[in-house]
Amino acid sequence: MNKIVVLGVFISMFLPVVTSAHDVFLPDWRGLEGTTYQEWRFDYDANPAVPEVIDNDYGIASASITVGAMGSGWLAYPMLGTQTGVWDIGGDDGQILLDIDNRPLALDYKEIWLQVTYYQGMGGAPIVDVPGAQLVSSQTVLIEEDIMDMGWYLDQSVWRIEPNPSHEQVVLTGDSGGSIIDQIVVDTYCVPEPASIVLLILGSFVAFKKRRQQQL
């Protein structure tokens, strides 16, 4: 075998594997006015953790982690495939609490898209709750297969809050067998109903007309 190839294989055994973010389900409204986008990759053991990627004009976002009795805390290299920088929060006494500032206007409803990447092994998916919201839909995809049909999975769920609050929380509670979480992506969209949009336009028109009359 070529000496350069042998050297490359040897070095690769000791270097961390760089993986791409698990941002699989992108809402078509991401980046529009009234939206926010937060991505926690947990590259470091900071607690509370700020998102590594954030686009939020309305404030800040943070993740407060509680490690349960069965949990090992933050792990740089969990030896479970190629994922790095994960939180082993343990069983149902482990939790990740997300706090996200949002648009303060009193609009009709808010849509929340949530993507959680976790390891499916002895434990599994954390239980997700968005206080005050209703679950609209959910789906699961395989990210990286491991031995014995285990591996990293991504759960995507869509939630709706009526009316729109200026701040929300997302709670991830560990599975009874334990949960290891690699990444969390949260998109939010404060959406006015069509009728509300018409009222906003009419209100702006009336205000403009009054100002014009006062100037004449």
In short:
This protein has 216 residues and is mainly beta. It is built from 2 helices and 12 strands. The chain has one domain (17-210): Jelly Rolls.
Q: Care to describe what's here?
A:
With 216 residues, the chain is mainly β. The protein has a single domain, classed as Jelly Rolls, CATH 2.60.120. 15% of the residues lie in helices and 41% in strands. It has two helices and twelve strands. The strands form two sheets. Strands 1, 2, 4, 5, 7, 9, 10 and 12 form an eight-stranded antiparallel sheet that branches. Strand 9 and strand 10 form a beta hairpin. The longest helix has 22 residues. It is elongated, with a radius of gyration of 22 Å. The N terminus is likely disordered.
- The multimeric state of the shown protein is single chain
* Terminal-residue CA separation: 89 Å
- Secondary structure tally, helices: 2
Shape: elongated
Largest sheet: 8 strands, antiparallel
| Helix and strand sequence | HEEEEEEEEEEEEH
Keyphrases for this structure?
single chain; 216 residues; 4-stranded antiparallel β-sheet; elongated
Please outline the helices and strands:
Elements: H1 3-12, E1 35-40, E2 53-55, E3 61-66, E4 73-75, E5 86-90, E6 95-101, E7 109-120, E8 127-129, E9 134-145, E10 151-161, E11 167-173, E12 179-191, H2 194-215
Antiparallel strand pairs: 1-2, 1-12, 3-6, 4-5, 5-12, 6-11, 7-10, 7-12, 8-11, 9-10
